[in-house]
Amino acid sequence: MKIAVLSRNPRLYSTRRLVEAGQQRGHEMVVIDTLRAYMNIASHKPQIHYRGQAMDGFDAVIPRIGASVTFYGCAVLRQFEMMDVYPLNESVAISRSRDKLRALQLLSRKGIGLPVTGFAHSPDDIPDLIQMVGGAPLVIKVLEGTQGMGVVLAETHKAAESVIEAFLGLKQDIMVQEYIQEAGGADIRCFVVGDKVIAAMKRQAKAGEFRSNLHRGGSASLIKITPEERMTAVRAAKVMGLNVAGVDILRSNHGPLVMEVNSSPGLEGIETTTGKDVAGMIIQYLEKNAEPGQTRTRGRG
């Protein structure tokens, strides 16, 4: 197969591993810088050009679209879909998962466990918003944040009011979530491919920190997940419409709670921690499923 990898940086661990895994299995791998691809839209034959050449003859495309380039990245991916190239994750599913509020609303509608969450732009009554999620301590998140940025733990009612007022003063839409004390600063990253959790790791925040992101000094370890956690992760990915996803789960007193569904999960942490060839499993998934006409939306999203 001829497989495109949409990625801003071919040297990134995840991009490198996907290219290696594809080449080892005999495929032609082409890395395309997402922002430097350009499109011919108003034609009977949709085209993508890159460095002066038409990009055609691809069987599949692997989107590794960073959060900051979601809009343009999804436009390029939609163009591939219109050219009948099979996407590992579809543009509609990526857009859905990147909109944190929409993602939580969709998960909630399907009855998937979530932390109690409030959403606001300029509430008349901040104390009522705080009370809605069970009071302090609580977590305040900016909708646009990634890798733990724009996430604050407010330990008292007064601190929560101050932080919410500060964010709203900056014209930021915010989410306010209950703080799951019993999780102890740890979450579980479940790596879903197709309808299976192929690998899982526990991420533990460093001392004095509540965000468990590895970029923030968190540590990762192997973990055995329960059947309920496995089912929750697979269902969450399915609700988003993602074939490959990193589903972040908290262990609470009332079962697994989904924090986030990531459409471009990093491979370094999960491969290093579990010793599994996750990149190889992603390529195998494409080998089984990448056929013309298999894209559900065909760029209509």
Automatic annotation (TrEMBL):
Protein's GO biological process = SOS response; translation
Asked if DNA-binding is a keyword of the record, the answer is no
**Entry GO MF terms:** ATP binding; metal ion binding; ribosomal S6-glutamic acid ligase activity
Keyword Iron-sulfur annotated: no
As to how many cofactors bind and how, the note says: Binds 2 magnesium or manganese ions per subunit.
What family name appears in the similarity comment? Belongs to the RimK family. In the C-terminal section; belongs to the RimK family.
Q: Under what name is this protein listed?
A: Probable alpha-L-glutamate ligase
Q: Which organism is it from?
A: Pseudomonas sediminis
Q: Kindly list the organism's lineage.
A: Bacteria, Pseudomonadati, Pseudomonadota, Gammaproteobacteria, Pseudomonadales
